[in-house]
């Protein structure tokens, strides 16, 4: 994947907005809350960061090219040094999960404004091939 394909995937999710903040970062948001950040500066130490579950955070930071995201690691955000740190399919699932994690914590009033479109199915939280439920 690259910045444009990640951006396109994120914007394909219901009610996602984007904006530039901190001069060089493209923020992907749901209900005004960030779920992914893309670095627009090619010289940045990482190309993107996103929210994940506590368990997935522990797993991902053990992989080469993935580290705890600066400033937000305590909230289980990881940073990718390059887009090829993860296969495209896995990255899409992780972005869907990040979206859902943030969406689920939005205030009821905000969720109600979205209507019936609930976004990706909750089953996206299971990213491996096992059949156990989380």
Secondary structure layout plus pairing:
Elements: H1 3-11, E1 16-21, E2 25-30, E3 33-39, E4 48-51, H2 54-60, E5 66-68, E6 77-80, H3 88-104, H4 108-114
Antiparallel strand pairs: 1-2, 2-3, 3-4, 4-6, 5-6
Tell me what you see in this structure:
The longest helix has 17 residues, at 88-104. This protein has a six-stranded antiparallel sheet with strand order 1-2-3-4-6-5. It has a single domain, classed as Alpha-Beta Complex (Aspartate Aminotransferase, domain 1), CATH 3.90.1150.30. The protein is globular and about 40 Å long. By secondary structure, it is α+β, with helices and mostly antiparallel strands. Helix content is 30%, strand content 22%. The chain contains four helices and six strands. Strand 3 and strand 4 form a beta hairpin.
Keywords:
4 helices; alpha+beta; 30% helix; 134 residues; Aspartate Aminotransferase, domain 1
Overall mean pLDDT stands at 87
Biggest pleated-sheet summary: 6 strands, antiparallel
Strand order of the largest sheet: 1-2-3-4-6-5
Number of domains: 1
Helix content estimate? 25-40%
Could you provide a short overview of the structure?
The protein has about 130 residues and is of the alpha+beta class.
């Amino acid at each position: 994947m690259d910045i444009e394909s990640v951006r396109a995937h994120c914007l394909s999710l219901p009610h996602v907005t984007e904006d530039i903040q901190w001069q060089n970062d493209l923020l992907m948001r749901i209900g005004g809350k960030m779920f992914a950040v893309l670095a627009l500066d090619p010289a940045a130490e990482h190309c993107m960061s996103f929210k994940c579950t506590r368990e997935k955070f522990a797993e991902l930071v053990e992989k080469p090219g993935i580290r705890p995201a600066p400033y937000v690691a305590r909230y289980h955000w990881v940073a990718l040094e390059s887009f090829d740190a993860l296969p495209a399919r896995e990255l899409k699932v992780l972005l869907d999960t990040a979206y859902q994690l943030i969406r689920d914590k939005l205030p009821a009033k905000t969720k109600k404004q979205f209507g019936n479109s609930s976004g990706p199915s909750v089953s996206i939280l299971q990213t491996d091939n096992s059949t156990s439920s989380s």
